Q: What sequence folds into this?
């Protein structure tokens, strides 16, 4: 919540920037600020152990990795990440390999988000000496439309209210975080619901392919994404709101084997399911991504369903722009980056939203029960593998290099 009269707080502290949320966006912003000698405070409602283990995305586009590398934040990633240059579509009982690396000279990095968060929080807190407080409660934002905003919270250890003055607040705490609750009525939140669910699975089993697999099947979409040599992420299309307990071990593997099966492909390597949860596929975009001295980044500002594996990449894009803009303002009194922040972010956000919607039709058209949608799905897939121009356009969007941002 926001107010203009924080109360019951201890003696106020002051930081130029307070960052709410210790995910990839918030921690990247914090590291950019600390590298420039700017003090900042990160507030996180969860524990350090929790954020370093929370299962999330694992595909990072090359431009995002290079952005991390330029800022000294990619050393461990570059040592440990898998490199992917191809993906494979399986439909109509056949396999179609798509070599996007040869078309573009670029590739994906597969590096689970918990590992990236672990790297970023270590660099921020342990190496660059950034202030971070875990397990805080009841965060409130104050005076956002003035030059002197502040943030108050309850300290987890003492139970006391703390007040922190600042010049800017970076809202990086997701759709359910406090920074989304303070937006004015003039803010537009555009939302798209796909009307489908995905059963998200982690299997204690080695990957069954050297690349990402997309299964286009009348029973529903299925996906295979390597996470590590021992763990594989799988997805199964299911009804929205479905109960994960409806999916027994045997049912899950029977559907995965069928939906990802193709001539000449060996059976999937099965293993114990260590995670099962249903994701209702939807997207949203907040416009503008600013309110007074509050700047939103990552899932606080937009969500792209995992259909196109874009979420973590958008969060990093926001963080690069916002971190650099804050450094320019606080160090050189250059406000151009902050003035143009929302517009610059939203160009990439909407481009990724459109690609996610296009790809959803490819994934889900044949299982929709609509013969027309099924027909257009196969037309898109045939064109992808017969037209060099269509292949090049898809590769650019898949890798996030389709336009200059």
A:
């Amino acid at each position: 919540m926001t107010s203009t009269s924080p109360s019951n707080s201890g003696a106020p502290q002051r930081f130029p920037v307070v960052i709410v949320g210790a995910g990839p966006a918030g921690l990247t912003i914090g590291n950019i600020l600390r590298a420039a000698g700017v003090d900042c405070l990160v507030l996180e409602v969860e524990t350090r152990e929790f954020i370093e283990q929370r299962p999330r995305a694992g595909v990072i586009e090359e431009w995002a990795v290079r952005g991390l590398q330029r800022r000294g934040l990619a050393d461990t990633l570059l040592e440990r990440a898998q490199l992917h240059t191809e993906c494979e579509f399986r439909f109509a009982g056949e396999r179609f390999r798509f070599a996007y690396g040869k078309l573009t000279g670029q590739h994906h990095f597969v590096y689970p988000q918990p590992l990236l968060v672990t790297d970023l929080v270590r660099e921020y807190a342990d190496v660059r000496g950034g202030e971070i407080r875990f397990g805080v409660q009841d965060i409130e934002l104050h005076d956002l439309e003035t030059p002197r905003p502040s943030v108050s919270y309850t300290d987890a250890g003492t139970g006391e209210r703390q007040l922190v003055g600042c010049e800017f607040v970076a809202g990086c705490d997701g759709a359910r975080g406090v920074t989304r609750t303070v937006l004015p009525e003039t803010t537009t939140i555009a939302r798209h619901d796909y009307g489908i669910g995905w059963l998200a699975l982690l299997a204690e089993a080695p990957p069954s392919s050297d690349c990402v697999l997309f299964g286009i099947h009348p029973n529903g979409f299925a996906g295979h994404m390597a996470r590590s040599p021992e763990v594989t992420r799988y997805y199964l299309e299911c009804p929205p709101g479905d109960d994960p307990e409806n999916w027994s071990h045997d049912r899950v593997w029977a559907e995965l084997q069928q939906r990802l099966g193709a001539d000449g492909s060996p059976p999937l390597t099965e293993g114990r399911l260590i995670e099962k949860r249903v994701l209702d596929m939807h997207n949203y975009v907040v416009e503008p991504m600013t309110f007074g001295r509050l700047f939103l980044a990552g899932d606080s500002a937009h969500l792209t369903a995992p259909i196109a594996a874009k979420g973590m990449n958008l969060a990093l894009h926001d963080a690069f722009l916002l971190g650099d803009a804050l450094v320019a303002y606080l160090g050189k009194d250059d406000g151009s980056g902050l003035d143009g922040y929302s517009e610059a972010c939203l160009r990439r956000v909407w481009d990724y939203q459109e690609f996610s919607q296009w790809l959803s039709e490819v994934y889900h058209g044949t299982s929709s029960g609509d013969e027309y949608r099924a027909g257009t799905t196969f037309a898109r897939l045939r064109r992808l593998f017969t037209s060099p121009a269509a292949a090049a356009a898809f590769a650019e969007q898949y890798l996030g290099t389709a336009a200059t941002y």
Q: What stands out?
A: The radius of gyration is 22 Å.
